[in-house]
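Example (one chain per record):
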Amino acid sequence: MIMSDAVPRFGSVVLDCPDPLSLSEFYARLLGWPSDPEPDPANGWASLADPAGGVMLEFQRVEDYKPPTWPAPDVPQMSHLDLRVEDLEVSHARALEIGATHLDDGGTFRVYADPAGHPFCLCAC
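Predicted structure:
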């Protein structure tokens, strides 16, 4: 039996980017979450908390950041977010309106890039 204080809890997903505050605002709007209540004055880090609880989404500034070039393998993606939606068409229009770039269709999901170039999917699966 593993002691409960020895088991880590999943706290957050962190995305590298050139502008943490700007990218956090994009995701706050996309997900309908509140903005970072205490943004880093130096813009080196930003955090978003899911108002329903669970994993946080955080952003760290990386100098000379290079966005993924998905689907080309020149700068491969290391991970991507799958975001569940009820209505793919409505969610698609909203994502584009707030700054996402549509990359590909996959039937019950669509692939986008956020303003820093990270791929993410809207999934009506």
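Caption: The radius of gyration is 16 Å.
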